[in-house]
Amino acid sequence: MNIKKKIFLLVCLIVISSCSSKTKQVALIVKENEHAVLNEECNSFIKNTATQELLKYGRIITTPILLMVSGGTLLIPVISANAGLDTQDRLNASKLAEKCNIKNEIKSGKEIVYDVVKGVTLGIITSGSPGLNSTPIPTD
Hints:
disordered C terminus; globular; 0% strand; 140 residues; mainly alpha
């Protein structure tokens, strides 16, 4: 394997490993916060953070693959699915914060919508929308 491929794989691993779901971020805050209320409901939400992490990693891996394979035709469905999953993650994170008494992480519906729209916009800008400006290959 040449050096460029090794560097590319290393960068990919760093990017993927540095991303975590909002639910996991709040769960880590709960674990570190001495004022958190670790009751049964709170612990139940913390145990479910693994599911949100799997969804987050799945989105990180599958989104570019789906866009490349489809030539960009799946852009709207992929954005919609990612927005829905991001909304669910942020709702779970807010409920976790509420159940564990982390008041500064409890978000209103408006704040969640704003964060999701901001994330979708950033995702569109950084993804470069592969295939949308390309001409299809002629089939003779």
